[in-house]
Amino acid sequence: MHPSTVRRHVAEPREDFLARARTRREQVLALRAQGLKMREIAEQTGIPLGTVGRVIAEAKKAAQTAQDMAQKAAQEAAQEPAGQPAGQLEGEDTQAGQVAS
Fold first, then answer.
1. How far apart are CA 43 and CA 100, in angstroms?
2. Is 41 exposed, middle or buried (0-12, 13-18, 19+ CB in 10 A)?
3. What is the chain's Cα-based Rg?
4. Residue 27 counted as domain residue
5. Which backbone phi and psi does 74 adopt, to 5 degrees?
6. N or C: which end of the chain has fewer CB within 10 A?
7. Does 42 have pLDDT greater than 80?
8. Would the pLDDT of 81 be above 90?
9. What is the pLDDT of residue 52?
10. What is the pLDDT of residues 16-38, one digit of tens each?
């Protein structure tokens, strides 16, 4: 039996697959950061063009989500009353953790 046939029929350990996938994603993103077009990345790496596009789209979405979360946190921090620690309720005694009456 040919080795490629064996590889198709034998499951790759999950840790190995995830490490290989992470390396491929990093490679795609590094080449994109260098200014290569998706088609050039696909040709250079041997990764299908659709996969290259998906990796780039997922990275953009993750970056946008992180940026949105940072903006939201900054807005919430700006809305906290001055001199009151974040997460503390108004009238709450910080020493005893009880609400003052």
1. 68
2. buried
3. 24
4. yes
5. -65, -40
6. C
7. yes
8. no
9. 97
10. 999 999 999 999 999 999 999 99
Q: What is the DSSP string of 5-63?
A: HHHHHSPPPHHHHHHHHHHHHHHHHHHHHTT--HHHHHHHH---HHHHHHHHHHHHHHH
**pTM of the shown model:** 0.62
Decide if 4 is inside a domain.
no
Burial of residue 27 (CB within 10 Å: 0-12, 13-18, 19+) is middle
Determine, yes or no, domain membership for 35.
yes
| Residue 84 belongs to some domain of the structure | no
Total number of domains constituting the chain: 1
Q: Are 89 and 83 in contact (CB under 8 A)?
A: no
Structure confidence at residue 6 as a pLDDT band (50, 70, 90):
confident
Can you give the residue range of the structural domain that contains 37?
12-77
